[in-house]
Structures are given as C-alpha cells and as structure tokens.
Amino acid sequence: MATASIDIQAFTATTFTTPDKFSQFCSNGGAPLGGIIGGKSVSGSMNATFQTTDPGSQEVLATICEMGEAEVALAVETAHKAFIGDNGNGWKDVLVEKRIALVNKLVELCGRDRDILLACEIRDGGKVSELATGDFTQIRECAEYFSGVARRIAMGEGPERSVAPRVKGFTYREPWGVVAGIIPWNYPIVLTSWFMFPALLAGNTVLIKPAEDTPISALYIAKLAAEAGFPPGVINVLPGRGEITGQCIAKHPGVRYISFTGSPGVGQAILRTCDRHGTRMKREMGGNGSAIVLSDADPELVARMVGRYVNQHYGQTCCTVHRVFVDRKIADPFIDAQRSFLEGLKIGYQTDEGTQLGSVINSTQHHRILQAQKETAARGGQAILSGGVAEVSGKDGFYLKPALYRTSPEVDCNPQEVFHTFATVCPVDSAEEALQLANRSPYGLGASVWTQDIERGVALAKKFRDGTGQVNCHNSIAYGLPYGGQGISGGPGGGVNCEDTFLDYTQVKAVYVADYPG
Ligand code: NAD
Questions:
Q1: In terms of pLDDT, which residue wins out, 128 or 518?
Q2: How far is the CA of 268 from the centre of ligand 1 (A)?
Q3: Are 147 and 103 in contact (CB under 8 A)?
C-alpha cells in the first residue's frame, strides 16, 4: 500500500523566552501570591503556602497561599453578596449585554498579555508552545461562543399556560448563584475558560479552584478581570490542595453547583460529599481513549496520526489515544511505524526548540507512570518500547521515555488511564471485535475509527460507548458539539462547550398560580 507523503509531526516547541512580567507577577515583590476574594488578595488564615514549579527544571516559579475553611466561607459569602447585590444591582441583575461587554474586555486583556498567559501554560504547565498557543485561542473562542448562547437562551419566566381550571403555570429559569469550578492541571487556561465563561454569562458568581500544580493562570486571569471592571466578588480564585481547599468547597452548602474536571476517583469523592447537602455537580473526568484502525487504512500514515494524539501534551490529555485496535492484516507495519514515530520524538525541556516530549507534571505522576509501565508488562503486554526514565542534560525534571506494547484480545493489560505517551496495540480479526474490546473499558470519553470507508467509519463511531466518536481524527473539540464522558468519564449534565453546558449553569423551577379561593 502506498504511504501518503504528508508530513505528520508531533506537537513541537519553538524556543520560548519567559517574559519579565510573568516573573514579576510570580515573585509578587517577595510575598506569596494570595487567593483572590472580593477583588482582594487574601493570604489565608492557615498561614500555609505551597510552591508551584516548572516541571521541566523544578525551578520554583511562585509561592502561593493556600485557602482553608475560613477563606472558602468568606469567598462563598462574598460571591453570594456579589450575586444578590443591593437594590437590584447584583451580578444576577446585570443585563446580558453588559456581562458580554465585560467578558469581551477580559478577552481583550488576555490578548494584550498573551505572552504572560503562554508562560503560565509553558512554564507552570510544562507544555510545548505549539499546544499552548492553540490553547490560548480557546479563551476568545469560548467567550464568543457562550456570548452567542447567552443572547439566545431565555432566562426568567417561560410562556404561561393553563394547567387546571383557574390554575396557570410557567417555568422560571435563573442562575444557581455561587458556583465553583474545580480545575485539573493539564489544560488550565482552556478548562478555566470552559468553566468560567458559561457560568458567568448565565449570571452566576464563581469560585475557581485551580490545581495545585498550575495555579498561576487563574490568579493572573483574576487580576485581569479586576482591570476589565468585573465587580468585586464575581470572580474569586481559591488556590490550594485538593484535599484541603477542594474539600472545603465540596463541604460548603453555600456553593450551589460544582463543575469538576479531573480524575474519576476524585470526582466521585466530591460528589459523595456535596450530595449530602444538595449541591449539584457536573463531572468531566479521565479517559482511556481507543482508536480502531481498519484494514483499508494506510498503516504508516495512520500510525503517525495516532502517534501525534498518543503524545499530545505527552499523553497528559484526557481524551487522547491509549488503546489501539488494528486489523491483523496491517498490524505489523502499523506497529513498526508507531514505534518509529514514538521513538523519534525529541525528548527535551519544554521551552527548547524542537522539543516534543517534555517532563510530566510532578513526581507523583512520574512514579505512577513508571509503575504502570511495569504493570502493563507484568499483565502480558509485550514491550515494543519499554518506557523508563529519560535524562535531559542540565534539567532536573520528570522525564520519561514513550512506552508501546503489543497485546492480544485476551490480555487486558491497559485497564487504567496512564496519562503519558503510552499505548497498547492489539491486533484484531474484525472491526466488530475491535469495537467490543474498545467498549470493554469503564471509561468512555473519546474514541476514533481510521478508515477510507467513511460510511463504515461513521456507523462504527456511533457505536462507541464514549461521549465523542470520531472518524479519521482524534481529540476533536468544537463549540456547539457536546464534549462529555460516558461511563466513569462523565457525570450528569450536558458535557461542555454546547448549549446544554450553559443550561447546566441555570436552574428551572415551575411556578403555579391559582385564582384566590372563593
Ligand atoms: P485530580 O482529580 O487529581 O484533581 C482535579 C482537581 O480536583 C484539582 O484542582 C485538585 O486539587 C482537586 N482535588 C483533588 N482531590 C480533591 C478532593 N479530595 N476534594 C476536592 N478537590 C480535590 O486530577 P488532575 O490530576 O489534576 O488532572 C488529571 C485528570 O483530569 C485526568 O484523569 C484527566 O483525564 C482528567 N481531565 C479530564 C478532562 C475532561 O474534560 N474530561 C479534561 C482534563 C483533565
């Protein structure tokens, strides 16, 4: 079979120089960066701080104050006051066009300070520039999409109808009030935008709980929000560890709605906590994505395409490919090409020109991934690339080599999200067998089919037990289409990035009005 000549590259770094303004913001005149509550920097009553580091070099970038129970309580109270206001001037009362104007101003300021926000992704998050610049565009795209939705969705009273003799009824749609976004470390700017814009535009006031590994961008966005003119208390940022700050948010009954993005175990634990006092929650969680490669696909071309997604953000992407099921007829050339693509990745420091595989986020992940590589082999995965520790000269980061395993249908060696440039390839006899194996996972975030026969691909894609099915593409996201998970990858709610997302940030009540008796 002829191999297409298109050049498919992994996401790659161009040289990035850290702007002085980023370093100045992080150093904060020598004081730790506080949380942001009611527009003010708050250092926290626990007197606890933590450091956020560049994962590729372990340089400390900033010291951050951890927010505890008292700060969460203060933030809820402050956000509630900002929501309600006095005499009709709360955020809930602000006209949609005024909210949109403030959001636009914030987007404009993000554009002005693009290099600082890129530094947050690249230095704090360890990402290569090609991916970080793509992430940055999501700020504007997300704000524009949800501004359109906010203009379309009717809030307040729905049409009235007679429901019984002398009784009428109507719906009443309103924002929840104080809503919290609990954000993971891998896509901080994107996921903060995906939470914050629909929640704010629907009329809620927000608490943003950034991940402890990547808290800088949320704090910087809060600074820009104040400059944009958002009223104090509308956007609050509560940095801290999950088990401290995150738990305090989960336990606080004043938080009416939680939008969680992260791992399934943590999402389930938060749900158990907040459900006790009736706080609603939506959960967008991890995946163990699959790709099915049919016999008519060009094995070398598709192996490179799939390899690009296996390695997106070094595999630290929720919906990326970790399990490949390939038709046995093309399995050998596919595996050879996948090995050569992954082996050819340039391992390096994330700001150095040409780097394609940088450091993982922290030592816990580093340890977990090494353990998972060992377990995959112990469960019967035949190592094509056995992973292991990588060294990058002069950099003290958490570097790892890619791992690739050949497996077979009876061997379940890849049951959990590993979150690195890691994949198993399983030769199969038919598309139906591939589909059955792909759907065997309890995760269900994203899956793809690779074939020249689009009609067949679409028929298979519809049968995935995943929130997103794709043909000849992967890690696909578009505003207007829901991005959410099935199985343990998602919770209730309409996913993100669509009209249902906006509706998730509202509640609908029924109101009945009967004539006065008599
Ligand atoms: P995580 O679940 O460890 O943490 C996510 C957030 O929850 C962090 O802010 C953390 O501080 C907080 N948290 C942790 N323990 C908590 C607790 N007990 N109570 C309250 N809050 C707590 O996830 P992570 O390691 O930051 O991120 C990686 C995970 O996120 C992966 O599973 C990945 O697939 C998933 N993810 C999913 C999506 C999606 O859209 N579905 C997007 C990005 C990442």
A1: 128
A2: 11
A3: yes
Of the residues 266, 312, 483, which should be mutated to test ligand 1's pocket, given the most ligand atoms within 8 Å of the CB?
A: 266
How far is residue 398's CA from residue 430's CA, in Å, rounded to a whole number? Answer: 39
The Å distance, Cα 263 to ligand 1 centre, comes to: 5
Which token pair is 168? 């009428």
Q: Cβ contacts of residue 256 below 8 Å, gap of 6+? A: 176, 177, 178, 179, 279, 280, 507
CB 280 within 8 A of CB 176: yes
Domain boundaries, the chain: 36-46+60-285+490-510, 289-471
Q: What secondary structure does DSSP assign to 493-507, as a single string?
A: S--BSSHHHHHHTEE
Q: Are 298 and 4 in contact (CB under 8 A)?
A: yes
Q: Are the C-beta atoms of residues 273 and 250 closer than 8 Å to each other?
A: yes
> 438: how many CB neighbours lie within 10 A of its CB?
27
Name the average pLDDT for the chain: 97
| Tens-digit pLDDT profile for residues 150-178 | 999 999 999 999 999 999 999 999 999 99
pLDDT at 6: 74
**Residues 6 or more apart from 455 whose CB is under 8 A from it?**
none
Mutate to test the pocket of ligand 1, among 121, 185, 475 (most ligand atoms within 8 A of CB): 185
Class of the domain covering 36-46+60-285+490-510: alpha beta
The CB of 211 under 6 Å from ligand 1? The reply is yes
Which residues are catalytic, by number? 284, 318
In this structure, what token pair is assigned to residue 448? 């793809």
Decide: 110 and 205 in contact? Cβ < 8 Å. Answer: no
Specify whether the CB–CB gap between 427 and 408 falls below 8 A: yes
Check: pTM over 0.90? Answer yes or no: yes
CB 77 within 8 A of CB 238: no
Measured between alpha carbons, how far is 474 from 304 in angstroms, rounded to an integer?
A: 12
Q: Is the pLDDT of residue 446 over 70?
A: yes
> Alpha-carbon distance 308 to 44, whole Å?
42
Identify the residue with better confidence: 210 or 3: 210
Mean per-residue pLDDT, 233-245: 98
Q: Considering the domain 289-471, what is its CATH architecture?
A: 3-Layer(aba) Sandwich (3.40)
Does residue 250 have its Cβ closer than 6 Å to ligand 1? yes
**Ligand 1 near 261 CB (within 6 A):** yes
